[in-house]
Amino acid sequence: MTSDPEGEPMLAICTVKDTQGNPIAGVTIDIWETDSSGHYDVQHADRTAPSERCVMVSDEQGRFWFKGIKPVSYPIPHDGPVGKLLQLLNRHCWRPAHVHFMFGKEGWDRLIT
Ligand SMILES: [Fe+2]
């Protein structure tokens, strides 16, 4: 799902399971992450095609896999009211490195993590 030559390659092999550990087939999974500079594709004014994102569907064993880049941490905007709030709370503006997943299947609650 990546076109970033600077990112450290990452292979993610995943399984979707219910709370009893049973695999769930046919789950649509939207996946997105930043590039190696810590920016999402929509934050680049010169990008016309999506990158660092994909949509997968789990197989009969609940499995899906994708190639991306190892996530990097990035700062949230902190030059306005959010920055003032963070300063008052003595908190920094950096989010930990992460990948976003949104799981969807008819009859199930949507899960975004
Ligand atoms: Fe994020």
Task: Explain what you see.
This protein has 113 residues and is mainly beta. The chain has one domain (9-112): Aromatic compound dioxygenase (Protocatechuate 3,4-Dioxygenase, subunit A, Sandwich). The protein contains 1 helix and 8 strands. It has one helix spanning 81-88, and strands at 9-15, 28-32, 53-57, 63-69, 74-75, 94-95, 100-104, 111-112. The strands form 3 sheets. A 4-stranded antiparallel sheet has the order 3-2-7-8, with no helix packed on it. Strands 1-4 form a two-stranded antiparallel sheet. The chain has a two-stranded antiparallel sheet with strand order 5-6. Strand 7 and strand 8 (111-112) form a beta hairpin. The longest helix is centred in the C-terminal third of the chain and has 8 residues, at 81-88. It is globular, with a radius of gyration of 17 Å. The model has no long low-confidence stretch (mean pLDDT 95). Fe (ii) ion (FE2) binds next to loops. Pfam families: Dioxygenase_C. GO terms for molecular function: ferric iron binding; oxidoreductase activity, acting on single donors with incorporation of molecular oxygen, incorporation of two atoms of oxygen. This is Intradiol ring-cleavage dioxygenases domain-containing protein. Belongs to the intradiol ring-cleavage dioxygenase family. Residues 4-113 form the Intradiol ring-cleavage dioxygenases domain.
Topology record:
Blueprint: E1 9-15, E2 28-32, E3 53-57, E4 63-69, E5 74-75, H1 81-88, E6 94-95, E7 100-104, E8 111-112
Antiparallel strand pairs: 1-4, 2-3, 2-7, 5-6, 7-8
Fe (ii) ion binds at residues 98, 100.
